[in-house]
């Protein structure tokens, strides 16, 4: 994932340089290959999302139960759509409507990240007076909880792609590539240091 988004960012940064056209083409090919390869391995993620949804459906508190279960189910649907797109990309079923399935995949991913962000904001559930008080409270909560800060950063970065694709907030491949690299690095950090991973 980090390689895919690094290629996207680099190809955007050098796309206007005349002597770099071949390199841009190679970077885009590598980005496409990384994307296709990741799609093939996502079936396991779909199973993981369904198992996680089953676990979160048993949580005692209503709000986390609803948000986390909805997030995991829409994530599983995203992986289903992604698998369909992979089947089309490798030529097993070329008549699949790519724009339709791509749009569904983007929407599912967007909602899965949005639900998770809602749960992450113990901030969102706290009523405080004025934006200054809110920002102070936000700073204090994130300072006390590095896993929450990293997860929030990762989710906000992950929103850049769906927001652009759905036309909610248009950016460019450079911004999406940068956000993807940052999100991937946070993911690698939480894998290398499990104590920084937000507990579900």
Automatic annotation (TrEMBL):
<keyword id="KW-1133">Transmembrane helix</keyword>
<keyword id="KW-0812">Transmembrane</keyword>
<dbReference type="InterPro" id="IPR008733">
    <property type="entry name" value="PEX11"/>
</dbReference>
<keyword id="KW-0962">Peroxisome biogenesis</keyword>
<dbReference type="GO" id="GO:0005778">
    <property type="term" value="C:peroxisomal membrane"/>
</dbReference>
<feature type="transmembrane region" description="Helical">
    <location>
        <begin position="174"/>
        <end position="192"/>
    </location>
</feature>
<dbReference type="Pfam" id="PF05648">
    <property type="entry name" value="PEX11"/>
</dbReference>
<keyword id="KW-0472">Membrane</keyword>
<dbReference type="GO" id="GO:0016559">
    <property type="term" value="P:peroxisome fission"/>
</dbReference>
<protein>
    <submittedName>
        <fullName>Peroxisomal membrane protein 11A</fullName>
    </submittedName>
</protein>
<keyword id="KW-0576">Peroxisome</keyword>
């Amino acid at each position: 994932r980090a390689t895919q988004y690094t290629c996207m960012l680099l190809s955007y940064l050098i796309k206007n340089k005349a002597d770099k056209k071949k390199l841009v083409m190679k970077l885009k090919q590598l980005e496409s290959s990384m994307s296709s390869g990741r799609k093939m391995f996502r079936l396991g993620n779909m199973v993981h999302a369904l198992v996680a949804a089953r676990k979160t459906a048993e949580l005692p508190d209503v709000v986390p139960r609803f948000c986390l279960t909805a997030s995991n189910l829409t994530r599983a649907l995203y992986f289903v759509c992604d698998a369909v797109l992979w089947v089309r990309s490798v030529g097993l079923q070329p008549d699949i409507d790519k724009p339709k399935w791509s749009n569904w995949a983007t929407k599912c991913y967007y909602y899965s990240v949005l639900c998770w962000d809602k749960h992450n904001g113990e901030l969102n559930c706290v009523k405080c007076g004025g934006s200054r008080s809110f920002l102070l409270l936000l700073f204090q909560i994130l300072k006390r909880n590095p896993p929450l800060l990293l997860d929030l950063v990762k989710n906000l970065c992950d929103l850049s792609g769906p927001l652009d694709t759905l036309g909610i907030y248009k950016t460019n491949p450079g911004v999406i590539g940068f956000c993807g690299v940052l999100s991937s690095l946070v993911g690698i950090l939480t894998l290398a240091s499990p104590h920084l991973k937000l507990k579900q």
